From TrEMBL, chain A:
GO terms for biological process: translation. This is Small ribosomal subunit protein uS13m. HAMAP family: Ribosomal_uS13 (MF_01315). Keywords: Ribonucleoprotein, Ribosomal protein. Belongs to the universal ribosomal protein uS13 family. It comes from Schizosaccharomyces osmophilus. The keyword Signal does not apply. Coiled coil: none annotated. GO terms for cellular component: mitochondrion; small ribosomal subunit. GO terms for molecular function: RNA binding; structural constituent of ribosome.
Automatic annotation (TrEMBL), chain B:
It holds the Pfam family DAP3. Residues 53-106 are annotated as: Disordered. It is found in: Mitochondrion. Signal peptide: none annotated. It comes from the Eukaryota. Residues 77-91 have a biased composition (Basic and acidic residues). This is Small ribosomal subunit protein mS29. It comes from Schizosaccharomyces osmophilus. Belongs to the mitochondrion-specific ribosomal protein mS29 family. InterPro entries: Ribosomal_mS29 (IPR019368). GO terms for molecular function: structural constituent of ribosome. The lineage of its organism: Eukaryota, Fungi, Dikarya, Ascomycota, Taphrinomycotina. PANTHER family: MITOCHONDRIAL 28S RIBOSOMAL PROTEIN S29, SMALL RIBOSOMAL SUBUNIT PROTEIN MS29. GO terms for cellular component: mitochondrial small ribosomal subunit. Keywords: Mitochondrion, Ribonucleoprotein, Ribosomal protein, Transit peptide.
């Protein structure tokens, strides 16, 4: 297993398809990357030399992928809400943004559209989640401690 | 070949139902018949063997000739019996059925195979001869040459059809004689005048003809064979590639190393007799001095893929120099199979993510230079062949070989067109009737074909003389 920019990639996979594991890289971008670095189609991750690995890491670090891309997306949504645009209000209301029907369907928008946009996760919908409860619990305990 | 049958004493009763269920499907089944095979002596002797195919009607030993001359069908529509006797003195026992019977009487097929089973089948394949007198004859490939051809990768696609036989055998055709004549004339002719392309339809025998040219070259100790088969690997983006600023082209180090290694292995004897004319520096501190034999030169060069790329052209120049030496009889044969795939855009990409042209590659560009005559050997021949595998459109090659006209809406590769337009084309002709007969005899003798030899005319017509179709027609089971 090779880690590139913190993302684990299996050794046996061809590089062209292993790059699809990055958030923000699809087939077209993966093809472009392989062409730029002169990687042939059947080159596997384990066959990459150190120089090729370095070149790949350098190229990927100059691209907006993974966390940077997610932050950019969230920032865009926040800006829409801040300027009180229609799209921002729809994101905030958890409703479809692109003019879809709401009388029926719109399940995905209701599930995912937020100001801090959620992605698919395994925690059930509607629960607070430990990541949101814990900071609040800590702050309450600290206040109680101060009172005592 | 026969299915397992039970025998009681000397009489074997075989029902057609059993025959019909055997793993070999007969071309024409005889229904509702009982075969009685009487075997007088043990299996491998040349005894008298009577096979009566139908019981008990009209069985008269004195009327054997009458049976042979009579028609096949009875008035009730059932197929007639026929008994065949083999004389003890007739040791060759090459029994051929009557004309016209092969297609209508399945019992003849059965009888022929039964008779073949107990006879000594002699496969008298002559050794190779290079004269036109052996046209239409089959010849066996000797094992040492077979290993060399395998090392070159020349018989990858032929292994399946060769597996039908105990030893691979080739047919000496008219086109083979043409190739031999060209090679024999090339003793004093440079490769710029000896550039040929074999072109024909699918399954017309282009790759096999190149094989035969290689066999000719391997049989003569003064030939250096540079064989490039399976050219798809050079263009299908399955090997490493990189841009070389010094040559301003793209190089494929691993494939170049493989090519030079195969050349070194199959031409080891003659390469040991040739020597370099100047010094070459492999790496700083290591060099090859002048006078080193070419086999050692290649051995050192192929130790590293980068060195293989760097010294590929010097090696070719050394070969050319060897052919120019006074008193030298060294001849070079350059074989390029599947020129078609080398004439279309490759699957490799440049940094702008556009497909690379074949002439952008250092090695493939050199192939086209030898094909065009820009580079040549002082004594040598270049044979190339188009291919139908994989099925692709080759507009540049078609226009260059004169098979198509310029189409303003179809872009062609100018480099490919300019390189190939001056090459002489050898068209691949279909089998002649005699050639079909030779192949059919060989297939029947090898027990690969279930039909009688006389049906070669029928198969020739059905296949149109196309070698691959002819082989498929002869070897089909139903």
């Amino acid at each position: 297993m090779v880690y590139i920019l913190g993302v684990p990639i299996k050794d046996e996979r061809p590089v062209k398809y292993a790059l699809l594991g990055f958030y923000g890289i699809g087939r077209a971008v993966a093809d472009n990357i392989c062409a730029k670095l002169s990687f042939h189609d059947t080159l596997k991750v384990k066959e990459l030399t150190d120089g090729q690995l370095t070149g790949l890491s350098q190229l990927l670090s100059n691209m907006t992928i993974e966390g940077d891309l997610k932050r950019q997306r969230d920032a865009n949504i926040s800006r829409f809400y801040t300027i009180r645009s229609y799209r921002g209000l729809r994101h905030a209301a958890g409703l479809p943004v692109h003019g879809q029907n709401t009388r029926t369907n719109a399940k995905t928008a209701k599930k995912l559209n937020r100001l801090q946009r959620r992605t698919y996760s395994t925690s059930p919908v509607g629960t607070l989640g430990w990541s949101r409860v814990l900071p609040t619990a800590v702050s309450i305990l600290q206040k109680i401690k101060h009172i005592h | 070949m026969l299915p397992n049958v039970r025998s009681t004493s000397n009489v074997l009763n075989v029902r057609t139902g059993l025959l019909g269920k055997s793993k070999f499907a007969w071309r024409h089944r005889v229904c509702n018949c009982t075969y009685k095979l009487e075997q007088t002596k043990y299996r491998n002797s040349n005894g008298i063997q009577e096979f009566s195919t139908f019981q008990p009607l009209n069985k008269n030993e004195n009327d054997k000739e009458q049976y042979r001359e009579s028609g096949n069908l009875r008035s009730n529509g059932k197929k007639e019996s026929r008994s065949i006797e083999y004389d003890e003195s007739n040791k060759t026992n090459k029994k051929s059925p009557r004309q016209g019977q092969g297609s209508s009487n399945g019992s003849i097929v059965l009888d022929e195979l039964i008779s073949h089973d107990d006879q000594h089948v002699k496969e008298n394949h002559k050794t190779m001869h290079w004269s036109p007198k052996t046209e239409g004859k089959m010849y066996e490939i000797p094992n040492p040459l077979l290993e060399k051809l395998d090392a070159l990768g020349a018989i990858e696609k032929q292994k399946k059809s060769f597996s039908f036989f105990s030893n691979p055998v080739l047919l000496h055709r008219e086109v083979t004689t043409k190739l031999y004549n060209i090679l024999q004339r090339s003793k004093d002719v440079g490769s710029e005048k000896g550039r040929y392309v074999l072109d024909g339809s699918d399954g017309s025998g282009r790759s096999i003809s190149l094989l035969q040219a290689e066999i000719f070259a391997f049989s003569h100790p003064n030939y250096v064979v540079l064989g490039l088969h399976n050219c798809e690997r050079w263009v299908d983006s399955s090997s490493a590639y990189a841009y070389n600023p010094s040559s301003k082209s793209w190089v494929q180090p691993e494939l170049t190393k493989e090519f030079l290694t195969s050349v070194m292995n199959v031409n080891s004897k003659i390469l040991r007799t040739l020597s370099t004319s100047k010094n070459y520096e492999l790496v700083p501190g290591k060099s090859i001095v002048a006078g080193t034999d070419l086999h050692t030169f290649l051995r050192k060069v192929t130790s590293n893929p980068e060195l293989s790329v760097k010294f590929y052209q010097p090696f070719m120049q050394e070969l050319d120099a060897a052919t120019k030496k006074p008193g030298s009889s060294v001849n070079v044969l350059f074989i390029i199979d599947n020129l078609s795939i080398l004439s279309v855009p490759t699957k490799y990409k440049n940094p702008e993510n556009r497909n690379l042209s074949p002439c952008d590659f250092y090695f493939i560009k050199s192939l086209y230079e030898y094909l065009s005559g820009a580079r040549s050997f002082h004594r040598g021949t270049v044979f190339a062949a188009t291919s139908s595998q994989p099925r692709i459109k080759t507009p540049s090659l078609d226009v260059a070989l004169g098979k198509a006209n310029f189409d303003p809406y179809v872009p062609i590769n100018n480099s490919v067109y300019e390189s190939v337009k001056s090459v002489k084309v050898i068209p691949m002709e279909p089998y002649s009737v005699n050639e079909s007969l030779s192949v059919m005899e060989h297939l029947v003798n090898s027990n690969v074909c279930l039909e009688p030899v006389q049906s070669h005319l029928q198969n020739h017509v059905l296949s149109g003389g196309n070698p691959r179709l002819f082989f498929d027609t002869c070897t089909r089971l139903t």
